[in-house]
Amino acid sequence: MDRALLQFLSVADAGSISLAAERLRVTQPTLTFNLRKLEKSLGVELFQRTARGMRLTPYGQTLYEHGIVMKRLHENALTSIERQRIQMDYGLSLGSGYTAWTGFLRAFIFEYRERHPDVAIHVSIGNVLRLMDQLLAGDILAFVGHKVPDLDPSLGTVFTPVGYLRDGYFVRDGHPLLGGTRTLSELRAYPSTLAFPKESHQRRLSSAVFMDGTVGKAFTSNSLEACLDYVKHTEAVLQHGELMAQEFERLGVFQVQLAPDDRADPVRMGVYSLKERSTDPRAQALISEFIIRATSAYGPHTE
Q1: Which of 80, 86, 141, 298 has its CA 20 to 30 A from that of 180?
Q2: Maximum CA extent, the chain
Q3: What does residue 251 show for φ and ψ, rounded to 5 degrees?
Q4: What values do phi and psi take at 188, rounded to 5?
Q5: Buried (b) or exposed (e) across 208-245, using 16+ Cβ within 10 A?
Q6: H/E element holding 8?
Q7: Cα distance between residue 7 and residue 14, in whole Å
Q8: Model pTM?
């Protein structure tokens, strides 16, 4: 792929010449020269240079939107060629959170292994924005997650609804919140913990997902195991999908019974994939099976 376009994308993502130069391992003068050369060839300014960094102009935003698609297509082509070279025609790469892994994906993966014992299988566990990054990069074929309300349509993703998931609240055995029906105000009197918090660089994909943030959380981690350890040794309350209730109980963490009016609203769940995969029969067959399994866990989609 054209080096100047790759450097432009890196500056746009970093918002800074110095940071982009560091990531690309080139000097700042070289990067500045190449950007000026690109702007001259296009006859437009791509960035507004401010004291706070580099901001895309409308021309730059247009080039960025097309550039990330070109970059993804280029990287996906190289990846596909490499996978063919090492005969990974039936390899599987999917993404989910721990709730989906426990609810249905674990069983699906084991069954797939029995059908194709010699293939490589990869499962990425994380929050919806981390998985979106991996989907756009071509690292995973599809993932299951909640619907991102303000996702840019130019990214070329497809969201197939599979049902709903409601968050629950979980505490250690013997916690004062157990043994009766509680309200949210009672829960908020205790510290809380959250697995897979959002990361600041993911804000470019969605601002809405960041509205609740992790403010007020006593402990956050990209490891569910670490969060469970924290909950089992403190008074903290873990917020996580209700489908994990049985699994958590096996691990000594129990769901708090909330008053009906204080239960969280269910969020729409679905399988994300890329439009560009729609012409690949094998990819579509795998995605279709993935959707069927996800629907079995989250229930039929309803408005």
Answers
A1: 298
A2: 70
A3: -95, 5
A4: -70, -10
A5: ebeeeeeeebebbbeebeebbebbbebebbbbbbbbbe
A6: helix 3-14
A7: 10
A8: 0.66
pLDDT in tens, 257-297: 999 999 989 999 999 999 988 888 888 999 999 999 999 99
pLDDT digits (tens, 9 = 90+) for 92-126: 899 998 889 998 999 999 999 898 887 889 999 98
| Both tokens assigned to 181 | 């029906």
> Which H or E run contains 18?
helix 17-24
Contact 120, 94 (CB under 8 A): no
C-alpha–C-alpha distance, residues 149 and 234, integer Å: 34
* Strand, coil or helix: 88: coil
Q: Report residue 133 as tokens.
A: 């990054």
| Number of neighbours of residue 96 by Cβ within 10 angstroms | 27
Closest CA to 164 of 45, 302, 72: 302
82 by Cβ neighbours in 10 Å (0-12 / 13-18 / 19+) ranks as exposed
DSSP H/E element including 143: strand 142-146
